[in-house]
From TrEMBL, chain A:
Residues 15-106 form the YCII-related domain. This is YCII-related domain-containing protein. SUPFAM superfamilies: Dimeric alpha+beta barrel. Belongs to the YciI family. It comes from Streptomyces fulvorobeus. Gene3D superfamilies: Dimeric alpha+beta barrel (3.30.70.1060). Pfam families: YCII.
Automatic annotation (TrEMBL), chain B:
It comes from the Bacteria. This is RNA polymerase sigma factor. It comes from Streptomyces fulvorobeus. GO terms for molecular function: DNA binding; sigma factor activity. Residues 161-251 form the DUF6596 domain. Residues 98-148 form the RNA polymerase sigma factor 70 region 4 type domain. Belongs to the sigma-70 factor family. ECF subfamily. GO terms for biological process: DNA-templated transcription initiation. Residues 6-70 form the RNA polymerase sigma-70 region domain. Pfam families: DUF6596, Sigma70_r2, Sigma70_r4_2. Keywords: Sigma factor, Transcription, Transcription regulation. The keyword Transcription applies. Transmembrane segments: none annotated.
């Protein structure tokens, strides 16, 4: 088994084929999209491959240590940040091929006009614990 | 076996152990173990006196733990003898536990966790699931909380307001996982109201009942939010509403107004309207004015602006909104709604989209995006 993180981006991924902002869809198209996403997560839970998934707010803050006895420095949010993650889903699957297959399914979620968004999702393997048997 | 009934005995059993001299943290662990014993044993062998059974089982567990601890420390004389059973002042014990678990030394998240375990009788696993954190994290939070209050005198009266804040937090968390936190908050507040005669406790209970009554109408089958004005009021729970209104009226009659009674009064006025158009917005604005005097919270002033918009027209609502800080959460959503009522659909759509970007949860984000989409579709974009 191998864990993968599926990342959805607000910004930073190549443009989707069906790239229309959600507030320009019809309310029914939005509902259909939500239903697809929920069904997808439910199906993965049913197949024993779902680990967790969360959505992230678009605006965050950068923070760094500023020395002993001083409060941390904060900065941002930056309007020009190129890579902005919208949410993630972690899956635990048997193979890289299965992970790609699932990411493809998620990217087919319906958007404007009820047609698949063809959104680019980022697939990142997790670094796991070393195996017990090494030779 | 009725698990809720079993858990309702938790605080009085715990109270007995603490009165007998057990330290709070150890007593709390012992009661949890006794509850687990009961779940195992009772179905086949139900006790005649459930509370007595639990006290005996918990006390035995406590003695076992104390002896094990004593042995571990190689001290020999730390054996606690069982005192003669006597009448235990159960009511006061329960109240003291509420105070202890909501003690001002505790952070809100610790107070919530400790209350759910020591007063509510939920297991650490159930609480962890409800708040979507690992069980080990919740176990640490609870044991730290117990250490924090370990030096607090159990017989000192506490501040009811802190208890109400904790119960309000539990209720507002709503529903996630196997444990229904809203229902649990209602149960704990009912139990508190039976223990102490206080108009704000009654006010909070009424507020919870009136909101709980709307629960099944608040979400569509697909999980999306249904705003108050669009809810099918036939699905509101009339029994809960009647109970909430009765409790509220009795509390208001005592003329010691507080924020929970005022909030409940607003919920009661909504419950009173058979259709959204029949809502008595003028009275609701008056209650928001009372509430603003009691709390002066920006959230209250934001909600008041909505009510003003309904009572005196959207322009008046927008004027009330103008005085509020731009960065206030949900302000854009309120502004969008008032602009829509005022006929300015382009501004409303833009503000709904902005509100969606800043929405604090997924359900609200989806709802606000749909609102923007609805107006944009309507405008032929």
């Amino acid at each position: 088994m191998a864990k993968y993180l599926l990342l959805k981006h607000y910004r930073g991924a190549p443009a989707a084929a069906n790239d229309v902002p959600m507030d320009r869809w019809t309310p029914e198209e939005i509902s259909a999209h939500m239903r697809y996403m929920q069904d997808f997560a439910d199906r993965l839970e049913g197949s024993g491959e779902f680990v967790d998934g969360q959505a992230l707010a678009p605006e965050g803050t950068f923070v760094r240590y500023d020395g002993e006895g001083r409060p941390p420095v904060t900065d941002g949010p930056f309007a020009e940040t190129k890579d902005l993650i919208a949410g993630w889903m972690m899956i635990d699957v048997d193979s890289y091929e299965r992970a790609v297959e699932l990411a493809g399914e998620l990217s087919a979620a319906p958007g404007a006009g009820g047609k698949p968004i063809h959104e680019w999702l980022e697939l990142r393997p997790l670094l796991t614990a070393p195996p017990t048997i090494t030779e | 076996m009725n698990e809720v009934l079993l858990r309702s005995l938790t605080p009085s059993v715990l109270g007995v152990l603490v009165r007998r001299g057990a330290d709070f943290a150890a007593a709390e662990d012992a009661v949890q173990e006794a509850l687990a014993d009961a779940v195992r044993v009772w179905p086949a062998d139900p006790p005649r006196d459930p509370k007595g059974w639990l006290v005996t089982a918990a006390w035995r567990r406590f003695l076992d733990a104390t002896r094990a601890e004593a042995a571990r420390r190689r001290r020999e004389d730390l054996v606690v003898e069982e005192p003669a059973p006597g009448p235990a002042p159960a009511v006061d014990d329960t109240l003291q536990l509420y105070f202890l678990c909501a003690h001002p030394l505790l952070t809100p998240s610790s107070a919530v966790a400790l209350t759910l375990r020591a007063v509510g009788g939920l297991t650490t696993r159930q609480i962890a699931q409800a708040y979507l954190v690992p069980e080990a994290t919740m176990a640490q939070r609870i044991s730290r909380a117990k250490r924090t209050v370990s030096g607090v005198r159990f017989d000192r009266p506490g501040d009811v307001a802190t208890v109400l804040r904790v119960l309000y937090l539990v209720f507002n968390e709503g529903y996630s996982g196997d444990v229904d936190l809203a229902a649990e908050a209602v149960r704990l507040t009912r139990q508190l109201a039976a223990t102490i005669d206080h108009p704000e406790v009654a006010g909070l209970l009424a507020l919870m009942l009136l909101h709980h009554a709307r629960r099944s109408a608040r979400t569509a089958p697909d999980g999306s939010l249904v705003p108050l004005a669009e809810q099918d009021r036939g699905r509101w729970d009339t029994v809960l509403i009647a109970e909430g209104v009765e409790i509220l009226q009795a509390a208001l009659a005592r003329d010691r107004l507080g924020q929970f009674q005022a909030q409940a009064a607003i919920a009661a006025l909504h419950a009173d309207a058979p259709r959204a158009e029949e809502t008595d917005w003028v009275q609701i604005v008056e209650w928001y004015d009372e509430l603003a005097r009691l709390t002066d919270s920006p959230v209250v002033r934001l909600n008041r602006a909505v009510a003003v918009g309904e009572a005196d027209g959207p322009r008046a609502g927008l004027a009330a909104l103008a005085a509020l800080d731009e960065s206030l959460p949900r302000r854009a959503a309120v502004a969008a709604y008032l602009h829509e009522c005022d006929g300015d659909l382009a501004t409303a759509a833009r503000l709904y989209a902005e509100a969606a970007r800043n929405a604090p949860n997924l359900a609200e984000r989806a709802h606000l995006t749909r609102q923007a989409a609805r107006l944009n579709t309507h405008r032929g974009l």
